[in-house]
Design the sequence.
C-alpha cells in the first residue's frame, strides 16, 4: 500500500504516533490480574471502566476502557475489599492485639498482618492482592547508603530520619512479634525480619488511602486513617489531574471521581497531592517529570554563603527570619526564586541605616533600589552555585552507573531527580537575569547622565575663561 504524502496523511500519522506512545499495553490477561479480578468479584466489585496496563514512562497502571467524562466516578471499591485495622482485628491477630500492652499502633497492626499473610502464601485469603504488590520499593529507606548520599542535602537529612524511624519501629515491635509465636511453627524472628517489616511499612506508606476509623481501645492513640485499596492502588500519580477521593458513608465504598475527562485507552491518573519531587521520592519512591510543584530548596547555610561576613547585624537578621518563619521553605521554582526566598535575601541585604525597616521588608515593601539589586545579585550567585553543584553530581552519578551496575536503577532515580532540579535552576537563572535588566539599564543610563553633567561643567568653565 502506497503511503500518502499529503497534509491529511501527515496529520493522521502524527496522531497515530502520539497514540502509540501514550497508549498502554493491556495486562488484564496475566494470571495475577485474572485471579485478582475473581477475588474482587467475590467481594462485590467488578470494574467496567478500567483495566490493568503497562505504560511507557509510568509502568504498570490502569487504562480507560471507555471515554471518561468530567465528574464521573471512575472507581468505587466496596468496603469489603479494603484492608483496614478492622480487617486485622477480625483476624487471628485480633486476640493478640487486644491483650498486648501498651496497645500497638494501627500501623503496626497493618504491617504485622501483611507480613503474616505474605508468609502464609497460598493459604492466605489475601493472596490475589499480595501477588500484585511490588516485591521491592524505591523509597529512600530501601536504597543503598551510597545512593542516599547523592541526594540534595534537605532530602538526604529527611531520608536519614526516615531510616532511623523505621529502624526504631522494627526494634520497638520485636516484643509484640514474639507474643505471636503460638501462631507459627517457625521462629517469629525469621518471619518478622527487618526486611519483611520494611516491605510492609513501604506498602502501607506508599499505597494506603485515607479512611478515618473510630478510635479503638485495642490500638494506641496514633491516627487510624490508613486503608489498603486493592486494584484502586494501581492508579498512578500525575500532578496535573484533579480528583475527588473519599469513603462514601452511604454506599460504603471508597470512591474516586475525576475532575477532568479521559479518552478511551488512555492511562487514568490520580493526584497524591501538590508535592514537589523531593517529597514524592521520600514518601513514594519516584520522581515526576515536569512536575509544576517541583523546586530546589535553599538551606540556611547556603542562604548566608554569599553575604558579607563583616555584617555585624547578620545574627540579628537570621534571628528575625527564624522568629517570623522565613528561614524554611526558601526555594527556586519554574517561575524563579520564590517570594519567600527573595524576601529573606532583601532582609539580609539591608544596610545598617536601613535595618529599622525590616518589618516593611517582611510586608513586601521596597526599601531601596540598592537593596533590590543586591538581593537579586545574591539570588543569582546562589542559583549559579546550585547549577554547578548539580552538574557535578550528575557527572558523578554517570560515572557510578558505569561502575555500580547492581545499583543502576537506584542511580537512575537519583539522576532523574537532579536532572529535573537542573532544569528548574536554569529556568530560574533566566528569570533572575531578566529581573536584573532594569537595574543594569538604570546604571547604564545613570552613567551617561554623569558624563553629560561633567561635559556641561567643563563647557561652563571654558566659557568663563
Sequence:
Amino acid at each position: 500500500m502506497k503511503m500518502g504524502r499529503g497534509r491529511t496523511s501527515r496529520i493522521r500519522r502524527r496522531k497515530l504516533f502520539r497514540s502509540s506512545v501514550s497508549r498502554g499495553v493491556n495486562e488484564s490477561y496475566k494470571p495475577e490480574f485474572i485471579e485478582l479480578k475473581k477475588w474482587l468479584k467475590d467481594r462485590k466489585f467488578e470494574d467496567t471502566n478500567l483495566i490493568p496496563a503497562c505504560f511507557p514512562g509510568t509502568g504498570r497502571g490502569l487504562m480507560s476502557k471507555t471515554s471518561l467524562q468530567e465528574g464521573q466516578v471512575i472507581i468505587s471499591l466496596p468496603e469489603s475489599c479494603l484492608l483496614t485495622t478492622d480487617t486485622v482485628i477480625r483476624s487471628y491477630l485480633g486476640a493478640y492485639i487486644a491483650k498486648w500492652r501498651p496497645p500497638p499502633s494501627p500501623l503496626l497492626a497493618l504491617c504485622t498482618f501483611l507480613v503474616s499473610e505474605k508468609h502464609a502464601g497460598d493459604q492466605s485469603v489475601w493472596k490475589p492482592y499480595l501477588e500484585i504488590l511490588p516485591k521491592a520499593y524505591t523509597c529512600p529507606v530501601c536504597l543503598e547508603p551510597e545512593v542516599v548520599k547523592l541526594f540534595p542535602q534537605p532530602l538526604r537529612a529527611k531520608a536519614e530520619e526516615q531510616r532511623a524511624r523505621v529502624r526504631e519501629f522494627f526494634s520497638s515491635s520485636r516484643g509484640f512479634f514474639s507474643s505471636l509465636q503460638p501462631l507459627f511453627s517457625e521462629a517469629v524472628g525469621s518471619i518478622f525480619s527487618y526486611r519483611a517489616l520494611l516491605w510492609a511499612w513501604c506498602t502501607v506508606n506508599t499505597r494506603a488511602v485515607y479512611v478515618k476509623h473510630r478510635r479503638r481501645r485495642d490500638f494506641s492513640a496514633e491516627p487510624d486513617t490508613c486503608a489498603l485499596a486493592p486494584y484502586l492502588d494501581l492508579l498512578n500519580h500525575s500532578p496535573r489531574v484533579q480528583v475527588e477521593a473519599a469513603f462514601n458513608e452511604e454506599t460504603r465504598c471508597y470512591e474516586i471521581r475525576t475532575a477532568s475527562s479521559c479518552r478511551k485507552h488512555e492511562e487514568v491518573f490520580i493526584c497524591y497531592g501538590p508535592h514537589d519531587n523531593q517529597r514524592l521520592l521520600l514518601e513514594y519512591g519516584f520522581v515526576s517529570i515536569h512536575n509544576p510543584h517541583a523546586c530546589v530548596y535553599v538551606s540556611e547555610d547556603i542562604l548566608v554563603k554569599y553575604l558579607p561576613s563583616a555584617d555585624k547585624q547578620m545574627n540579628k537578621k537570621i534571628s528575625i527570619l527564624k522568629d517570623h518563619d522565613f528561614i524554611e521553605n526558601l526555594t527556586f521554582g519554574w517561575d524563579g526564586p520564590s517570594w519567600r526566598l527573595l524576601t529573606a535575601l532583601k532582609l539580609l541585604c539591608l544596610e545598617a541605616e536601613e535595618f529599622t525597616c525590616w518589618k516593611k521588608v517582611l510586608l513586601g515593601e521596597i526599601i531601596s533600589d540598592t537593596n533590590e539589586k543586591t538581593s537579586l545579585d545574591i539570588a543569582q550567585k546562589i542559583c549559579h552555585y546550585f547549577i554547578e553543584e548539580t552538574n557535578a553530581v550528575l557527572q558523578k552519578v554517570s560515572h557510578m552507573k558505569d561502575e555500580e551496575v547492581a545499583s543502576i536503577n537506584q542511580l537512575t532515580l537519583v539522576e532523574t531527580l537532579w536532572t529535573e532540579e537542573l532544569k528548574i535552576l536554569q529556568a530560574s537563572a533566566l528569570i533572575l537575569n531578566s529581573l536584573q535588566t532594569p537595574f543594569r539599564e538604570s546604571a547604564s543610563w545613570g552613567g551617561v547622565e554623569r558624563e553629560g553633567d561633567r561635559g556641561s561643567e567643563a563647557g561652563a568653565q571654558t566659557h568663563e575663561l
Residues 317 and 348 are 6 Å apart (CA to CA). Residues 15-21, 447-465 have pLDDT under 50 and may be disordered.
